[in-house]
Amino acid sequence: MKKFLLGTVALIVFGATANAADLPARVYTKAPVVAPVLNWTGFYIGAGGGYGMWDADQHLVSSGIPVGLDQRFGGRGWFGTVSGGYDWQLNPSWVVGVFGDAQFGDISGTISGGYIFPYSGKTKNDLNYAAGVRVGYLIAPNVLSYINGGYSHAEFKGTGLSDPYGFPTPLSTGKLKQDGWFLGGGFENTLNMFGFNAPGWFLKTEYRLAQYDRKDVGVYAYGTPIPVAISFKPYVQTISTQLVYKFNWGR
């Protein structure tokens, strides 16, 4: 009888111990967490600002004939920018896209006829817009490095001209609109990488160089055109940062 009781107690203790050993596995074991698949395909919009610099090769034109050699004058200033576009993720590493953007600001500098026509003024590059394509490589699932290029348009305001001593004159230049091309590149990354929980929000930083066609800026005396112009060929460099929102990020 004692042996039977001892055996029964042993079986009960063994069963309880086995159940206790299994309990943590049943209580604490969780299903593996599956990371969301990040998808760069989709529409986006952005807004931000930056700093720009332009330099222009300039010389006098008299009755349609170039006079003198090029002199380079330039300007500096700040601008705001807005953009929009669409990207396609081709595979886990490559992204291509199309986009358009516009810059509004005050990148002011000098326009001058040079040594032969020593009258100058301050002109402002107040508008640029562009349309192009970009090709990017994902250095991480949420970080895109890219290059871009395409068409660009720039506008420079007219200005009054002063004499070599800085005194105002009745002379002025007209507004200038120019077409050209641009090349650039930059990085775009999710804000989540900085510890923020902001699905769909990105930070984009980009450098761009734009070159425009040479054009003659008309010169006016008391608002009447005279047979003198200033040949103007600008190069514009900008660096900007934008906050970007992607509408279907991660879907």
Structural descriptors:
251 residues, mainly beta, Porin, 8-stranded antiparallel β-barrel, 1 helix, 11 strands, 11% helix, elongated
Compose a concise summary of this entry.
With 251 residues, the protein is mainly β.
Number of domains: 1
State the CATH class: Mainly Beta
Q: Shape, please?
A: elongated
- CATH-defined fold name: Porin
| Lateral arrangement of strands in the main beta sheet | 1-2-3-4-5-8-9-11
Low-confidence stretches: 1-21, 23-28
Strand content: over 45%
Number of helices: 1
The major pleated sheet works out as: 8 strands, antiparallel, barrel
What percent of residues adopt helix (DSSP H or I)? 10-25%
CATH architecture title: Beta Barrel
Measure the end-to-end span.
70 Å
Radius of gyration (CA) equals 33 Å
Mean pLDDT: 87
Structural class: mainly beta
User: What's the helix-strand series?
Assistant: HEEEEEEEEEEE
Q: Quick one: how many beta strands? A: 11
Topology:
Elements: H1 2-28, E1 42-62, E2 65-89, E3 94-113, E4 117-140, E5 143-156, E6 160-162, E7 168-173, E8 176-190, E9 201-212, E10 215-221, E11 224-246
Describe what this molecule looks like in 3D:
The structure is a single chain. The protein is mainly β and 251 residues long. The chain has a single domain (39-246), classed as Porin, CATH 2.40.160.20. It is 11% helix and 68% strand. An eight-stranded antiparallel barrel has the order 1-2-3-4-5-8-9-11. Strand 3 (94-113) and strand 4 form a beta hairpin. It is elongated, with a radius of gyration of 33 Å. The relative contact order is 0.19.
